[in-house]
Design a protein that fits this description.
The complex is a heterodimer of chains A (about 260) and B (about 220). Chain A is of the alpha/beta class and about 260 residues long. In chain A, the strands form 2 sheets. Chain A has a 7-stranded mixed β-barrel, surrounded by 4 helices. Chain B has about 220 residues and is an alpha/beta fold. Chain B is built from 8 helices and 5 strands, in the order E-E-E-H-H-H-E-H-E-H-H-H-H. In chain B, strands 3-2-1-4-5 form a 5-stranded mixed beta sheet, with helices on both faces. The longest helix of chain B is centred in the C-terminal third of the chain and has 18 residues. The radius of gyration of chain B is 17 Å and the shape is globular. Classes of the chains: A alpha/beta (about 260), B alpha/beta (about 220). At the A-B interface, helix 7 and helix 8 of A face helix 4 and helix 6 of B.
């Protein structure tokens, strides 16, 4: 485990201020504000790992990557729960996330089937649309890779949330993300928990860098964007433990220099 | 060595430092502190206490923060000092190996504000102090444990820190604000002084002294 993988998040899910590309001028990707594709071209990234909780930007991002000669590796971020029928504030403590990446060209169809299975099921909604182990198993195929996101996995939630007791039952052994250089208050304690967990499980691990904006100074507009999304305000964004300006491409470049 | 002799309540010479920072807002990356309240104490001795003001030429205290803290700009301007010099003084005490740090919601908020102070002065934020073994005692976390009838896990430094993180994740309203806990523990304090860093740290000191007997803290 040596290479650090930059993981870009989708603007449409309210987490990132980086759009995939400037949709106004698809023929001239060098114009307009910074976007993911522009960064990838400038810094010669051969692959873009792009995570979203929906497919709104998938088709456009796929076509633009193909045109630019860059491989798009799309990951669907899913909120998991013990059972979709459980709807209570207690059950929310056991919400956690997984990311399902596609391995090959067939994976798009499998991801769509998985996504549709919970997103079109009103029973699966409790604040957000959730998936459970049973649905995941039913739609799992060998074209998919299951990854545990660093800050929101079952391990992180069990460590940091009072009352969380998540016992995942995944269809395959997941790959564990190890966030690097986040300078976040939770980074060290989650790493401690992962070390303990993975000592026996011996799951594959990858080093990652989550990217929501380009430079550290962009954390200001990022918080403004998130405040608008959360209907709060800059002076009081209401984002628990939002305390690091290192979720940026600038930080990734420094780590990989 | 007798059983329990490692408990903090028996460490008569152990020094604690309690700090409170009043801020211009609740932004975990950008809100800067403008007042620093500080007390140093042992379990049965008060060593010192003071309040200092931190100068920022472009301080922007939100309406809500100004109302809650009774912020007065002229008063602040007259008393405020160089933020670089004050940060050095703060960190000299805060990082001292001989002192344990006590604070209401240090892990959930004031620790973030300390890093904002560093960041505003071009210094890299860090969390090294949080991960020093048995360095940090968050009175909000301990108050929630008290209300829920839970025993802090002090079996290892990591376990204790994880316990405090978990207590801070509780969303249930437990009436654990400093004032509410002060009243419940029948501590005499200046209620009109709440949300003034100077008064808050005095109350934190007394709350923590009680908590040392509620729990077997090490």
């Amino acid at each position: 485990m040596s290479e650090i993988i930059p993981i870009f998040y989708d603007h449409s899910s309210g987490r990132s201020i980086l759009r995939f590309a400037d949709s106004e001028d698809k023929n001239n990707l060098d114009s307009g504000p910074t976007n993911i594709l522009k960064l990838a071209k400038k810094y010669d990234l051969k692959k873009i790992y792009f995570v979203s909780d929906c497919f709104h930007t998938f088709v456009e991002s796929f076509k633009l990557c193909k045109k630019a000669g860059i491989q798009l590796i799309f990951g669907l971020e899913i909120t998991m729960c013990p059972a979709i029928k459980e709807k209570s504030d207690e059950s929310v403590k056991n919400h956690h996330k997984i990311i399902v990446f596609g391995k090959n060209s067939q994976s798009y169809k499998d991801l769509i089937k998985l996504y549709s299975s919970y997103k079109t099921n009103s029973e699966a909604k409790y604040y957000v649309y959730r998936c459970d182990d049973e649905i995941l198993k039913k739609h799992w195929t060998d074209n998919l890779v299951l990854v545990l996101p660093f800050f929101s996995s079952a391990i992180a939630r069990n460590t940091l949330v009072y009352g969380a007791s998540i016992i995942p039952n995944y269809p395959v052994d997941p790959v564990v993300m190890r966030e690097t250089g986040s300078n976040h208050i939770h980074e060290k304690i989650i790493n401690f928990a992962l070390d303990k967990y993975n000592k026996n499980q011996k799951l594959e691990e990858i080093k990652t860098k989550t990217i929501y904006y380009e430079n550290r100074k962009d954390s200001k507009p990022w918080i403004i964007f998130r405040s608008i999304y959360e209907k709060t305000e800059f002076s009081s964004p209401g984002l628990d433990f939002c305390c690091s300006d290192e979720f940026c491409f600038e930080s990734y470049l420094e780590l990989t220099k | 060595m007798s059983i329990g002799s490692n408990l903090l309540r028996f460490q008569k010479n152990q020094e604690f430092s309690a700090d409170d920072l009043e801020t211009e807002g609740l932004n975990g990356i950008y809100s800067r502190p403008w007042q620093w309240g500080h007390v140093e104490f042992t379990i049965d001795r008060n060593i010192k206490d003071f309040s200092r003001y931190i100068w920022w030429p472009n301080l922007n205290v939100s309406k809500d923060a100004a109302r809650i803290t009774r912020f007065n700009y002229q008063d602040y301007k007259d008393k405020a000092e160089d933020p670089v010099k004050l940060l050095e003084e703060f960190e000299d005490i805060f990082y001292s190996k001989s002192k344990k740090v006590v604070n209401q919601n240090l892990i959930g908020f004031d620790g973030l504000i300390l890093n904002n102070w560093r960041r505003a002065l071009g210094k890299k934020p860090h969390w090294d102090w949080l991960y020093e073994p048995y360095k940090v005692y968050d009175t909000l976390a301990l108050s929630r444990a008290f209300k829920k009838g839970l025993t802090p896990d002090t079996s290892s430094p990591e376990a204790f820190l994880i316990f405090q993180f978990k207590m801070l994740s509780i969303r249930e309203r437990l009436k654990c604000s400093l004032g509410a806990i002060g009243k419940e523990l029948k501590i005499e304090f200046n209620e009109a002084g709440l949300h003034n860093a100077a008064d808050d740290t005095l109350l934190v000191r007394e709350v923590f002294r009680k908590q040392l007997y509620h729990f077997e803290l090490v």
